[in-house]
Write a structure and sequence with these properties.
- It is built from eight helices and six strands.
- With about 190 residues, the chain is α+β, with helices and mostly antiparallel strands.
- It has a single domain, classed as 3-Layer(aba) Sandwich (NADH Oxidase).
- The strands form two sheets. Strands 1-2-6-5 form a four-stranded antiparallel β-sheet, with helices on both faces. A two-stranded antiparallel sheet has the order 3-4.
- A hairpin with a 2-residue loop joins β3 and β4.
- This is Nitroreductase family protein.
- It holds the Pfam family Nitroreductase.
- Belongs to the nitroreductase family.
- Keywords: Oxidoreductase.
- It comes from Microbacterium awajiense.
């Protein structure tokens, strides 16, 4: 389903349409299965994200709605995330490998974020909607999937088909319609010499 709202970002400089049009929804179609070819393409985009010295210090847990893995991830979600995210066709946990062969991998969180960002952009380009969440119990995910201490869950991403905004609860409709805001780049720039 196509969103009923125009969510295109009002940018201060021109950016690629796929970036300006990408936004994080909380309204997912709870019945339509995930598009497997679009999901595979998003995972492939993550695979080819930039990575320091080609170390690729990230992993994913891909859990489709209706599986026990999806349920375990949904149960780890905090607060309001539990109300809307389980409707997504898949929940994907991005996991950073923070240590390898006894040596810390200080860039692992950055590289994991790169992989998640590439996944998100490709998913959007192929008609999937996403929403990343930091509000989840990392220890619960670690225990549910037997992750060693060297693997750190970083974010859970809801992925799927956009739902019917008119059928969404009032709180979700209100959040969906809220203006998209970002602070000016000047407030994020430490030095611009």
């Amino acid at each position: 389903m196509t969103p009923t709202l125009d969510r295109t970002a009002a940018t201060d400089a021109p950016i690629l349409d796929v970036l300006a049009e990408r936004w994080s929804t909380r309204v997912f179609d709870a019945d339509t299965p995930i598009d497997e070819s679009a999901l595979a393409a998003a995972l492939e985009a993550a695979r080819w994200a930039p990575t320091a010295a080609n170390t690729q210090p990230w992993r994913v847990i891909v859990a489709r709605r209706g599986t026990s893995a999806h349920t375990r991830i949904a149960e780890s979600l905090a607060g309001f995330n539990r109300a809307w995210a389980p409707a997504a066709g898949a929940l994907v946990v991005f996991v950073a490998e923070t240590e390898r062969d006894g040596r810390p991998m200080d860039w692992a969180l950055y590289d994991t974020g790169q992989a998640a960002a590439h996944f998100t952009v490709q998913a959007h380009a192929d008609g999937l909607y996403t929403h990343q969440m930091g509000g989840f119990d990392r220890d619960a995910v670690r225990a549910a999937f037997g992750l060693p201490a060297t693997l750190t869950p970083v974010t859970v991403m809801a992925v799927g088909v956009y739902g019917d905004l008119d059928e969404a609860p009032a709180e979700l409709r209100e959040r969906e319609a809220a203006p998209r805001l970002r602070r000016p780049i000047s407030e994020s720039t430490i030095v611009d010499a």
